[in-house]
């Protein structure tokens, strides 16, 4: 698999697809194209719930990672032409080819990987490195500072074949997504959204406590000047850690957080993934 910087995204995508790698276009900012009107807000039922990649029935490049395909007919389809004209890069679905990408977002994260993880194929990125292992696993964001795991139900930007020999996915990487025991002071925390506790009683003193917390979370996302994706995930994690089990979070609160994230450029799919990853991390 090769891709020179001068190669048109569609040409690179077709080359990858011919090698069995599911691909999709990315727009500027390394984000996927938004859903088409019939699929907006997943009105079509959505691909995010699917376990395998493939185009939505609308045949447009909808639903982020789930749009990834190896079908050249789909990649050249009329519904994809506008996306390829505007595409800034190509992404692929690592889990679709049984791969895991450890995305190291800065030099310190790469230095940590060289000390903590077995050597494997590496690809240079704008600010760090991608370490690619054979084997798929659950994806997760911000498993530690500057480190994301991209495998199933996720996508990674294609930046070339990299260097070095690809090795098997080690337990050290799998362990990064395992929930660690909490060391924080025991307080009433986290809950399933729209699932109140018995009698609907909230252990917080007043509803204003929750409103203030959600407002502070919105502000944290809005004021993020860099690492927006990681900031969104950590903010979602903090809100769920504080309010997740008491049952007081409702869809309106979640919608406020998603709206703040989308105003910073996050897609609805990114928001859904970040929220799901936060729930998983907290064992909810």
Q: Tell me, what's the shape?
A: globular
- Rg, Å, rounded: 20 Å
Residues in β-strands, percent: 5-15%
Distance between the termini: 39 Å
How are the SSEs ordered, and which strands pair?
Elements (H helix, E strand, L loop, with lengths): L8 H10 L4 E5 L3 E2 L39 H4 L2 H9 L2 E4 L6 E6 L2 H10 L4 E4 L4 E6 L5 E5 L2 E4 L5 E2 L9 E2 L2 H4 L32 H16 L5 H16 L7 H13 L4 H15 L2
Parallel strand pairs: 6-10
Antiparallel strand pairs: 1-2, 1-3, 3-9, 4-6, 4-8, 5-6, 7-8
Helix pairs in contact: 6-7, 6-8, 7-9
Provide a concise account of the structure shown.
This protein has 284 residues and is of the alpha+beta class. It has helices at 9-18, 72-75, 78-86, 107-116, 171-174, 207-222, 228-243, 251-263, 268-282, and strands spanning 23-27, 31-32, 89-92, 99-104, 121-124, 129-134, 140-144, 147-150, 156-157, 167-168.
What would the keywords be for this entry?
4-stranded antiparallel beta sheet, 284 residues, globular, 10 strands, alpha+beta
Descriptive account of the structure:
With 284 residues, the protein is α+β, with helices and mostly antiparallel strands. Helices cover 34% and strands 14% of the residues. The strands form two sheets. Strands 4, 5, 6, 7, 8 and 10 form a six-stranded mixed beta sheet that branches. It has a four-stranded antiparallel beta sheet with strand order 2-1-3-9. Helix 6 runs antiparallel to helix 7. The longest helix has 16 residues, at 207-222. The chain is globular and about 60 Å long.
């Amino acid at each position: 698999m090769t891709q020179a910087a001068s190669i048109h995204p569609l040409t690179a995508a077709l080359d990858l697809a011919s090698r069995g790698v599911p691909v999709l276009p990315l727009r500027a900012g390394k984000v996927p194209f938004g859903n088409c009107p019939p699929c907006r807000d997943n009105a079509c039922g959505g691909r995010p719930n699917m376990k395998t990649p493939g185009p939505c029935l609308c045949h447009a490049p909808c639903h982020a990672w789930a749009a990834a395909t190896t079908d050249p007919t789909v990649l050249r389809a009329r519904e994809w032409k506008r996306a390829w004209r505007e595409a800034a890069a190509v992404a692929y679905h690592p889990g679709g080819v049984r791969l895991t990408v450890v995305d190291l977002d800065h030099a310190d994260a790469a230095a940590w990987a060289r000390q903590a993880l077995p050597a494997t194929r590496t690809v240079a990125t704008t600010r760090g490195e991608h370490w690619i292992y054979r084997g798929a696993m659950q994806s997760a964001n911000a498993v530690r500072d500057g480190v994301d795991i991209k495998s199933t139900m996720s996508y990674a930007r294609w930046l070339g074949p990299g260097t070095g020999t690809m090795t098997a996915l080690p337990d050290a990487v799998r362990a990064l997504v395992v929930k660690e025991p909490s060391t924080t002071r025991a307080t009433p925390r986290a809950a399933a959204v729209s699932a109140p506790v018995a009698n609907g009683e909230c252990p917080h003193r007043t509803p204003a406590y929750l409103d203030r917390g959600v407002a502070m979370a919105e502000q944290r996302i809005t004021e993020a000047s860099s690492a927006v994706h990681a900031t969104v995930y950590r903010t979602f994690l903090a809100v769920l850690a504080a309010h997740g089990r008491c049952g007081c979070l409702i869809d309106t609160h979640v919608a406020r957080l998603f709206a703040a994230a989308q105003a910073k450029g996050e897609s609805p799919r990114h928001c859904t993934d970040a929220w799901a990853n936060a729930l998983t991390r907290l064992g909810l």
